[in-house]
Design a protein that fits this description.
about 45% helix, DNAb Helicase, Chain A, about 15% strand, nine-stranded mixed beta sheet, about 425 residues, 2 domains
Length: about 425
């Protein structure tokens, strides 16, 4: 049966060609439950990907060539019954919802006749995937791939903001990615994550899952960061009238941010993703990964590997960006000094290094100096450049800013005896008899 939403979407494409790329980027042939509407959609897609005009005449001819004859009346009806193309943004989710309902009913009927546990799990997984707007596992043919490419090039990219321009130039994260922010204790990774979450919550729904810190403490840190009021004054209940006035001025903006703090103690990775779907978060932060309750594994390495894979797969299937904080293992000293941490120092599992789309490591340049500038090292970046950024951290207000000095530390000059070339050492001295020092 041809539903009003299907007619309106097809009608919009036929009335105004500018609607075609948006429809092709958001819908698949399977979203059209009526076979004839599906044929018209495929015809329009084929014309568009071939850089040919999309209009009622060309679509009818292409559909006829593809074996879809006798569609003139349907095309006429779709165009006549489409009130306006300006409401395409409303028609698309209606059509997707119709398609989900039809597929859900079909899966429900299948579930009533299924007895094998494996098949039941498969049906339940498919039903779960239908409950989110973004599809989970799917197969796309080359026509869809090319149509989506064209559509993306005509739209402004929607990358996550991080609050640091140089970082945003390199770290271009979209939905469904798995990012790791690693650091040693007390180096500021939670403060950095809260700052990024606050920035992103201006335009995205963000969930901050805390497995280590209570809600009140996180609230104090957020107020300190936003209002730039020292944590010591907040903790000691020594706010002045000026401080209260500052907070009052910011209260409306504070409440407008789409940031929620989730008490995640005892949650598994599956619990975290399921709740994120329920709350319809675009981005979630997890503080921190090693505290997530494992569900399998014979040892700690296998447990953390399972958590990592569950978060990676959950991000991809749900379309939610997952930013997980991780502890680092301190490397052994080399020549009496601790070398800068690398990806291999991620605690308890090399699977983290493999699963992440991007890995950031935050640490103090001078480990023994609490006022040392922080180094933010973008160690892995699947879709961009690597980079090193130097930050200044104000512990009192839990805030970061770009350090005025972005130059790396000077390399230590080697002693003269270490600067000799191999040729110099291996060339015999003609004045020294062979065998003598």
């Amino acid at each position: 049966m041809v539903t009003p939403a299907q007619k309106a979407v097809i009608g919009s494409m036929l009335l105004e060609e500018r609607c075609v790329p948006r429809v092709l980027s958001e819908l698949t042939p399977e979203d059209f439950t009526d076979p004839q509407c599906r044929i018209l959609f495929l015809a329009a897609r084929q014309l568009y990907t071939a850089a040919k005009p999309v209009d009622p005449v060309t679509v009818l001819e292409q559909a006829k060539a593809d074996g879809g004859d006798g569609l003139y009346d349907l095309v006429k009806t779709c165009m006549e019954e489409t009130p306006t193309t300006a409401n395409l943004g409303e028609y698309l989710p209606l059509l997707r919802q119709e398609a989900r309902s039809v597929r859900a009913q079909s899966l429900g009927l299948r579930l009533t006749t299924t007895v094998a546990p494996e098949e039941i799990r498969d049906v339940v997984a498919q039903l779960d995937a239908l409950m989110v707007d973004r599809p989970g596992v799917k197969a796309s043919d080359m026509g869809t791939i090319l149509a989506n490419f064209y559509a993306r090039q005509k739209t402004k990219p929607d990358y996550l903001p991080w609050g640091i321009s140089r970082m945003e130039d390199r770290l271009k994260i979209t939905h469904g990615k798995f990012v790791i922010l690693a650091g040693y204790p007390s180096d500021g990774k939670t403060a950095f994550a809260l700052s990024a979450a606050w920035t992103q919550s201006r335009v995205k729904r963000v969930g901050f899952y805390s497995l280590e810190t209570d809600e009140d403490t996180i609230g104090d840190r957020l107020v300190a960061r936003v209002a730039l009021i020292a944590m010591g004054k907040i903790k000691d209940r020594q706010l002045t009238q000026e401080d209260y006035d500052t907070i009052a001025e910011l209260s409306q903006d504070f409440a407008a941010h789409q940031l929620e703090i989730v008490d995640a103690v005892g949650m598994t990775a599956a619990d975290i993703i399921s709740y994120a779907r329920y709350r319809r978060y675009d981005v979630i932060y997890i503080d921190y990964l090693q505290l997530i309750r494992p569900t399998s594994g014979r040892n700690r390495t296998e447990e953390v590997s399972g958590i990592s894979m569950a978060l990676h797969n959950g991000a991809r299937s749900s379309g939610i960006t997952v930013v997980a904080l991780s502890q680092l293992t301190r490397p052994e000293k080399v020549n009496g000094k601790i070398p800068a941490p690398r990806m291999r120092n991620l605690r308890e599992s090399g699977q983290l290094e493999q699963d992440a789309d991007a890995i950031m490591i935050l640490y103090r340049e001078k480990p023994d100096d609490p006022d040392s500038r922080r180094v933010l090292n973008l160690e892995k970046n699947k879709e961009g450049e690597l980079a090193t950024l130097y930050l200044a951290f104000d512990g009192a207000t839990q805030s970061f800013r770009r350090h005025i000095n972005q130059q790396p530390p000077p390399k230590r000059k080697e002693p003269e005896y270490k600067q000799l070339q191999w040729e110099e050492l291996s060339t015999p001295d003609p004045n020294v008899p062979f065998g003598e020092d």
